[in-house]
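Need the bound structure for magnesium ion, inputs here:
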Amino acid sequence: MKIARFASPGEDPRFGVVDGEDLVVLAGDPMYAGYETTGERVPLRSTKILAPVIPRSKVVGIGLNYYDHADEMGQEAPEFPVMFLKPNTTVVGPGDPIQIPPVEGEIHLEGELAIVIGAVAKRVKAEDYADVVFGYTIANDVTARGPQQSDGQWTRGKSYDTFCPIGPYIETELDWSDLKIQSRVDGELLQSESTMQMIHKIPELVAYVSDVFTLLPGDIILTGTPAGVGPFTEGSTVEIAIEGLGSLINPARARI
Ligand code: MG
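Answer from helper R.:
Posting the output first, comments after.
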């Protein structure tokens, strides 16, 4: 099932299940309130699709989690997942502008499969990971390479406002074992790789991350990016597509 969070003009955000060209409107947030419908159908084209979730406490990033990406960054494949945090103020939705801050160095896209957590998750065993996963979506782990390198750690480079576009939907049923991830800037293909190339897989990531801190419903884990990360600039259109999840498209603009 594909879940969208959307807003019609002048209304508060609501949730719906994608059904062809329409949304079947839900009575509440399905993460908490289930799938009771209001009986309404809204055409997708008449609504603004929003980020499908706003993480309640955190976006957890996993660095260097594809063999070929670790290689292109000149790093060894890490024995354990490399974790970092992005604040939830980085999150924007499909079509929202990525605002490019005035910093030295290139701004890069990183196309990633994102896990959406659906329950309080603390020290979850790898074999139980599915119990705490609500679904999956697409993320762009936008990164300012200059600050990432000059600061010696990643917080600033990963955390500017708008640096985590997600969406367009949350897919609650997904076989994530072999999905193609493709990233494009203005139509030019930069990344094309299967999630099979992930070093630390999703059950292990949920176990590892939830051993460190408690995850809350709505929190997100970004599972890492394949090789081919590359720059975009003001005026670019950035697209991340993942098989089964659709396509996340954002324009890039100078920060206002
Ligand atoms: Mg990343």
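Comments: The longest helix spans residues 202-212. Residues 61, 110, 112, 141, 222, 224-225 surround magnesium ion (CB under 6 Å).
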